Fold:
Amino acid sequence: MPQGDPYGIHRSLEPKGALPQPAWRIDNTMRCYDNEILIDVETLNIDSASFEQIRQEAGDDPPRIAQIMQRIVAERGKHHNPATGSGGMLIGKAAQIGDSLRDRTDLQTGDRIATLVSLSLTPLVIDEILQMDRKSGQVDIRGQAILFETGLYAKLPDDLPLKVSLAALDVCGAPAQSKKMVQPGQQVVVLGASGKSGLLVLKQARDNLGPKRESAERIGRLIAIDRGAAACERLRQLDWADEVLDLDATDPIAVMRAVADVTSGQMADLTINCVNVPGTEMASILATRDAGTVYFFSMATSFTAAALGAEGAGKDVTMLIGSGYTKGHAELALQLVRNTPQLRAIFTERYGR
Ligand code: NAP
Structure:
């Protein structure tokens, strides 16, 4: 086979010459170019915002969810949800390694890997959907995928259950970015703190801030927000956050008032949004002090809602887009799960098999 473009441009069909992520449709022929890796896919981890949207559209009916997933891949050659724009990632076994890559990779045929690039740019064929976990968005399939020359991947460790690693790697950008951002002494809000990225971020933020102290000598304050009594009780038991608030993140005024209350009106220096539903931009912005920072990890974030909403409210905050990648992100997330018994237990209970 010939050599393809390192970024995968050779596979873009509509429009031709586009990068594969923004392309509407890509070529998902499962023939491996010289600089590609062919993967026998075992499990797709559909991005949480995307899976939530598909569940809603399908009335939470598994056969209809499966139909929508098949339709997306048939139309686009990739699992790129047109409603949310997001993808997810996968685990599978390397079935073929292109000739020109063999000397440049430590990967062997048969090795099990997780892709660390989005399904929204990954050529994919779904032959059959075998099993679906509607809570986690993990879907076992029979199918194949292609990784481009520049595509990042991680070999899966053998000391963690496969699906625990898959869940942690799906959101590994969030704790790694948080490690760079959270500074001792800050007041930090985590929205969606009980989800998988939220929990990893919460633990990383606690580590950065240092141990909890009595109020008089507090160095920084960590505020966890999620919805529902059960989620909040679990967060309290973890004892990483100084405050746990049971709030709907789509209600910006309630969030703003509650954060004002627990910060004596100072508001957050940094707000990290890990929610998986639309409409939470303003809660993030209003929870944050002037000149503070909002980190939007959520894929359900609207650029226009955030930009125009901040302007409309006269909030001078720095807003960061949550890139899925930062150096060392995969290892950091796996280490957090490995070294934190509570995280390991929750991830194993929710995702592990
Ligand atoms: P998750 O495990 O589904 O967690 C989402 C959390 O938000 C859950 O605890 C959920 O509670 C909570 N939540 C939902 N609606 C809420 C509301 N109205 N108020 C308060 N809390 C609410 O999701 P995840 O896998 O961590 O992903 C989080 C976000 O990151 C998603 O938007 C996902 O698309 C995005 N993501 C981004 C990247 C990137 O590269 N930037 C990569 C992967 C994922 P319930 O369980 O009760 O619904």
Notes: The two ends are 38 Å apart (CA to CA). Residues 9-156 form one domain. The chain has eleven helices and 14 strands.
